[in-house]
Amino acid sequence: MSGGERTNPKLRTKQRLWRWRSNALRRRDDVIEAWIVLAVVTVMTLGGVVVGAVTAHTADNVFARQQAEKHSIRAVLVDYVPLTVSRAVTSDQVRAKVRWTTADGSTRTGTTRVDAGYKAGSDVVVWTDGQGDLTSRPASSGEATARAALIGTTAALAFGGMTFGAGAIARWRLDRRRIEQWGREWDLVGPRWGHKTG
């Protein structure tokens, strides 16, 4: 087709849907392939949306539970934490030893990340879980929403990729079967055809 020629849109639609119409050249495998393509597109679209939404909702619930279980409390810095001047350090937080009091009144010590530049005895904010143990800061509402959306999108894309891969394998097997069938038919017809033209 030259650069100036254009294909009729109706003709293109007919070419794409030829496996669905009655046709002397259409084989059973062509109809199966058409159903496979339709199933793959449907499952990728609907299934991807469902998998993504369910995964995002589950991740959102996990982040919400973490926000409810983790609490910020005041702790006392045990050691001096110098300002970091290394260019290799990308965070302004360092690991340091702290002491805090739990809800039952017991005193504990542990290591967690704190802002650099504090002297020993300074008050710092740390995060604890339901048992009073040190834990990481929970994601904020905005961070939790963004992470849940990212996890849901990743799950939807992974599901779509697996579905596409399964469809591609099924179509590849159909192609192999068609090639074998064409080979068998050529073995029958080829010798007779050669005699007629020779």
Automatic annotation (TrEMBL):
Keywords: Membrane, Transmembrane, Transmembrane helix. The chain crosses the membrane at residues 31-54, 148-170. It comes from the Bacteria. This is Integral membrane protein. It comes from Streptomyces aurantiogriseus.
